[in-house]
From TrEMBL:
Keywords: Glycosidase, Hydrolase, Manganese, Metal-binding, NAD. This is Glycosyl hydrolase family 4 C-terminal domain-containing protein. Belongs to the glycosyl hydrolase 4 family. Residues 196-437 form the Glycosyl hydrolase family 4 C-terminal domain. InterPro entries: GlycHydrolase_4_CS, Glyco_hydro_4, Glyco_hydro_4_C, Lactate_DH/Glyco_Ohase_4_C, NAD(P)-bd_dom_sf. Binds 1 NAD(+) per subunit. Its cofactor is NAD(+). Pfam families: Glyco_hydro_4 (PF02056), Glyco_hydro_4C (PF11975). PROSITE patterns: GLYCOSYL_HYDROL_F4 (PS01324).
Amino acid sequence: MPSTTDRKLTLIGGGGVRTPLVTFGVNDAAQALGARELVLWDPDADRLAIMAALGRAIVRAEGGDLIVREATSIEDAVEGASFVMNSIRVGGIAGRAADERIAIQHGFPGQETTGPAGAAMALRTVPIAIEQARLVERHAPDAWIVNFTNPAGLITQAIANHTGAKIVGICDTPTELFHNIAHALGATLADIECDYVGLNHLGWVRGIRLHGEDVFDRVLADDAMLDKLYSAPVFDKAMIRALRLIPTEYLFFYYERRRALANQHRHGSSRGTEVEALNVSLIETLRDRLGANDGPGAIAAYAAYLNRRSGSYMKLEAEAGSAFDPEATFHIDPFRVASGYHRIAIDVMSALTGAKPATIVVNTRNRGALPDLPDSDIVETSSTITADSIVPLPIDRLPDPALGLVHGIKAYERAAIEAALTGERPTARKALLIHPAIGEWDPTGAMLHDLLDPTCQHC
């Protein structure tokens, strides 16, 4: 990537609720990124205008020089960009809520990236993500696509398989777990080294070193430490010790499917439904505050939204709690937290410019790093990132408890991508049959009809 101090960065899906965080991150790291402007594009012009205005208020509050503007078209957004971040949600948050509700009605936990709802999201998103990546190839051939779009591993795989675009997928889940491990040990992230293996939303820590000393057994043996690793009590400690693996929280929807579903039934809702309500309230508040020229008030409202959303994470599925419970909130500065999508994205892009080389867990081609999978498979693993280069670090073979799940999900991804591109319903049913969190043929027909038939999408 050529050295420049005048880079254009683009965010496709700029009307989304992550956009102000990304804007803050780009502005904060503008020097390392060489960023002149952040260009936002979204098919929802109203949402786009609100998020762009909030982004400009954030830049003013922080004293930055970053130009934040709305693109007139996706081609305008992409043309000449150095980085193209994509964070799209086909069907919007209402689509997520409907998908999760339908999954629950058919007897499966409702979760946006795993199980039936995750499959529906993938089937809708793959063709659009590939089309947008091809636009990047044409209009910004040197650009890196930084994929936020969920299900992140599958979407990154689809783009890598069907375009020549340079792509990396990011997720804050592994790094968040690393931070929690460091906190449990009374240490900082720089003090520890975690041996992480897996796929996006399907990963495990299988080794921990503190100042070079192996402390994995110490962590496994300590109930208080294990309690500090998750935002809610998602896993039985006896299970973690039996596996000798510390799972990321999304394994809850594989290891504790019945508990997740029972809690969703008890609550009578899903996370997606609650987030939809939070988002509707946020947009109304931002429209009012920004319309009154109250940038600081809009920023404060957005920060409060982030704290309630993050503070209630996994509470519903693990405990039948709610995002609207009084205690379900944080009281922190969400812009300056040590982890989060915006932090990972900025660290990855800063490393790819050559300004700040780093080792980061990302979703990238395997290229021999994990012996159990083909070189072309997208895996989530620690990678050395330098100027215009991502090289996954070699890792040991998958442990037996992870082996079947990882191979099952990669087989599911291949079938789901094929189904998304061909539109063949039997292939989509096969994908759900293969999925380790579904694994039945009979319910897939009616369930896919409800998930994918436009007349039923928001029923």
